[in-house]
Design a protein that fits this description.
Layout (H helix, E strand, L loop, with lengths): L12 E3 L5 E3 L1 E5 L9 E7 L6 E2 L4 E6 L4 E5 L4 E6 L6 E3 L3 E7 L1
Antiparallel strand pairs: 1-2, 3-10, 4-6, 4-9, 5-8, 6-7, 8-10
Length: 102
């Protein structure tokens, strides 16, 4: 999450150097899934890089030894990057991808 000089979270597009707009990115992260679960496997991406995503929309499926979960987008925007591909094992807290807010 990006913060301003006052420590407040940045939202939307912020003014960059020379007044140009800079998109703020929001990470899609592996949530804490319980005390004993430390990692998950990326099963399927439901969206591709460049796709428009609404906050709360399901974007990626992960699997643990106990459950399969569809993770929701934490923000509205465009899927800017995928950091963990299908079949990758990822730790709790790892960034799976990023959304560029509009």
């Amino acid at each position: 999450m990006t913060t301003g000089a006052d420590g407040a979270a940045a939202t939307g597009k912020e003014a960059g150097v020379l007044g140009e707009e800079v998109s703020v990115t929001v990470p899609i992260v592996v949530p804490q899934l319980g005390v004993e679960i430390e990692e998950a496997q990326v099963t399927e991406w439901l969206k591709a890089v460049g796709d428009r995503i609404e906050q709360g929309e399901q974007v990626v499926v992960i699997t643990t030894p106990k459950a399969t979960l569809e993770l929701e987008a934490p923000a509205t925007g465009v899927l800017a990057a995928i950091a963990a591909g299908v079949d990758e094992i990822v730790k709790v807290g790892a960034t799976l991808g990023t959304i560029a807010e509009d």
